[in-house]
Amino acid sequence: MATDFWASSHHKRWVVDRASVKRARAEDLLYVDDPEYLDFLAIFFANCISRLGKKLQLRQRVIATATVFFRRFYLKNSYCETDPFLVIAACCYVAAKAEESPLPIKNVVSDARFVFSQEMYGIKTFPSDTSKLAEMEFYLVDDLECDLTIFHPYRTLMTLCYKEGSNVGAGGGADGNIEAGELGAGIDDGQRYWGTGEGRLELHEGALQMAWFIINDTYRSDLCLLYPPHLIAIAAIYLALVLHTPTRTLIQSQTAPGSSSASATGSACSGPTTANPTPAPVRRSSRQASNASSSSSKKNQQHHQPQDFVGFMASLNVSMPLIATIAQEIISLYTLWDRYKEDSPTSTSSLDSSAKGSFTSNQGRHNSPFTTGTKRSATGTNTSRSGSVTTNVSASAGTGSHAGTPMDIVREDGVEITPVFLVKVLLKMREGKWTDLAARSGLGEGGDGGGNGPRAVNKILGRTQAAG
Amino acid sequence: MLDEWSSSLLQTDPMRAYRMKRDAAHRTVQSKYTILGFISSGTYGRVYKAQSRDDVDTGGDGKAGKIHAIKKFKPDKEGDVVAYTGISQSAIREIALNREISHENVVALKEVILEDKSIYMVFDYAEHDFLQVIHHYSQTLRAQIPPAVLKSLTYQLLNGLLYLHTTHILHRDLKPANILITSSGTVKIGDLGLARLTHSPLQPLFAGDKVVVTIWYRAPELLMGAKHYNKAIDCWAVGCVLAELASLRPIFKGEEAKLDSKKNVPFQRDQLIKIFEVLGTPDEREWPGIKDMPEYNNMKRLDHFQNHLQEWCNSRIRSSSGFDFLRQLFAYDPENRLPCREALQHKWFQDEPKPTANAFQTLAAHQIPPHRRITQDDAPSMMPMPQVQPHPQGSGKPGSSASFASMTQLSGGGGGGYQTSGGRKKARMG
Ligand SMILES: Nc1ncnc2c1ncn2[C@@H]1O[C@H](COP(=O)(O)OP(=O)(O)OP(=O)(O)O)[C@@H](O)[C@H]1O
Ligand SMILES: [Mg+2]
């Protein structure tokens, strides 16, 4: 909301350190067989939110908000002590309202029941009574401390970049593709909320789309809790620049000594797909330009200096080592995600707005019409931890992640990470927790709430049942 | 292993342990505040005067004993049973926006308590509001509000509005009852229940709420059916509020045409005529966009009026810069209407007498409106007052319905001491 991210609840209360994120999973760790499952659960839940969100026809930003709500909720709570599916539905329900696109509670309940009862989840117990969801909403909003305004990287992306040769403000509006329409949303978002730079990046549409998709993907991790959204956006732009074949080609041409962009274009495309070899002019708008609203005139320029990519990044006035760290974490996410198998029950997958296909190659279902030239590029993305962003863009393939053989999906212990498997993991954790509760004398332990004193668990359960 | 009974419980209510933990940690409204009395009921709920409890449990936050206004949103009812039905869009909005903002001239939200299927928003208390001031001068003192007070109130109102607009919030419901004043004479904009972010909204502004702003304060572009509107609608309302402070009655006191059964927004003929009678009929020269307005043809059929604002101001504002100021706030074309920032720099505020930080600084005690009247709740079971019904510790947690008393039918007006006439009520939809 407020242009001022620095004055927001998001900045003041909800960017946390990794230790807090870890601490939040401490109880779950007691009940999970393998700590790695928790990381897969993080992906799994984000996918659930995405699926339910798509069913409810929520826009990407609303889904993103719901996901942030979910992550924040589980900063304070444990998977094993809650029903994440009810929490997910509540997150979607509240996010829709918080983003001014409310839905009737009945629809949320019936769609959640439908989505979660599908074979891949097999959850048949989602309450049909709307008051259960409404009750969860109360607890959720309370746990969120009523901080319902979320900043997202999309806004930074759109503020920093505009699509080459198109009027972003017009909002795209490609039929049936929510994401395309959203690319234009929020372009008049006002100034950036950090730094002093005025540089804008002119991105090839494919690269912009890719950065957008990478941002979508970051919600499958805890990144939205760990870093302010503008840094995530810049990391996504950085990765898109490196991964988007035509753009990468151009950058390579610039960084190769003595080469002109024209000569390099034809030679450097080493990715498997070169369907769209149009060079993407990536350039920095003149910071000295007195005419601030010159975007249209810029578009009309036929000849311009190829953008100094390093200079643009430097002009952003953010810590480049930090950006490199975030980029690295995004890549780790893809590496992990690549080992998780989630087949869509329908052809219109909820995951079709992901950049995953550009990072990993094990699944060929990635079918965005916007990423021609990036699909399955299997680019080496050996981001330098030193923070240098210029040198590691060589197309040495295969260093980024496991190559895509089916073997990768199956762990050494023969376990295949699928939704069905993860639901089992979850139920087992929950049962473990309950068994402990029953074995111990009271419920007060283990939680920070406390205050109930020791009591026989059955008595407590009985009492709550009578009250609830 | 779990016995059968426990595991079936786990199946049917996996959130039980969570709720118990949360309920145990919950601190009730009653344990934190003493309810002193009932202030008013509005569209969305009831407002109470309350005092922080002065015991060790308040955590020593220094706020103990402070006076607050607690707004309790009315829970929706399903039949006779109060059940969780989902938090209203208006409450979500007011809560979400209030959590992000902080300004001297905007009423401060201290906390939100979710309890017993109800939402309690705890605000800093404001002893007065603009409507009170208007009543005090028109009914008791039978005199005009002195120019220094008029300017101070307007200046601070604009200052708070500038903050909201800078943070991309449209208030959309500015009117005297929603603009509060503390006992030390600081203006506090209240009631963000209709406010909205203009910041890249996912929905166009008109989609959510077909009708915004109480009719008397509604800008001409809204009355003309504009689908897109902006901050200028709030600036129009400021003009109306200023005019009302100056004349002690609403300047454009039209009759609202009601929504028809299909919830189509009707043509607001009477309200437009009231405006035209003072400002004249707008033409394309002063408002080029008018011919594209949905209600343009309806408007064309109205009688033609001349502008009389100057005469209107002569006896009421009695200052040429004051007239110019109002004229600019009442610009028909939203593009030409005075924005907050420019308004704050207007010559009127530089002329003597200048606005003061304490709006009441120049007043004698009897000129300051009396304290807000509080009454016993006319819906006594709504929020039990300690003296009426001692509240047992530990009840009234979010998860329990045991102590919840259902709400009786809301009546208008309430304890504020004023008749709430029809025009002051806003029409809200969706
Ligand atoms: N902070 C406060 N201090 C004192 N009184 C207050 C405060 N906030 C609200 N009130 C009183 O309660 C009334 C209703 O509050 P508010 O406008 O926030 O609620 P509402 O339900 O939106 O009302 P309406 O629909 O009538 O505008 C106000 O007009 C004012 O008289
Ligand atoms: Mg009000």
Automatic annotation (TrEMBL), chain A:
Native source species: Jaapia argillacea MUCL 33604
Domain named Cyclin-like: residues: 47-142, 200-328
Region ranges (Disordered): 253-305, 344-407, 441-468
Protein name: Cyclin-like domain-containing protein
Compositionally biased residues, Polar residues: 355-399
GO molecular function, one term: cyclin-dependent protein serine/threonine kinase regulator activity
InterPro entries, per the entry: Cyclin-like_dom (IPR013763), Cyclin-like_sf (IPR036915), Cyclin/Ssn8 (IPR043198), Cyclin_N (IPR006671)
PANTHER family linked to this entry: CYCLIN
Record key words, sorted: Activator, Cyclin, Nucleus, Repressor, Transcription, Transcription regulation
Automatic annotation (TrEMBL), chain B:
UniProt keyword list: Activator, ATP-binding, Kinase, Magnesium, Metal-binding, Nucleotide-binding, Nucleus, Repressor, Serine/threonine-protein kinase, Transcription, Transcription regulation, Transferase
Positions with biased composition (Low complexity): 380-393
Localisation: Nucleus
Top EC category: transferase
Superkingdom, taxonomy of origin: Eukaryota
Main location: nucleus
Annotated region (Disordered), positions in chain: 374-430
Catalysed reaction equations from the record: L-threonyl-[protein] + ATP = O-phospho-L-threonyl-[protein] + ADP + H(+); [DNA-directed RNA polymerase] + ATP = phospho-[DNA-directed RNA polymerase] + ADP + H(+); L-seryl-[protein] + ATP = O-phospho-L-seryl-[protein] + ADP + H(+)
This protein's record includes keyword Magnesium: yes
Residue spans of biased composition, Polar residues class: 398-410
UniProt protein name: Cyclin-dependent kinase 8
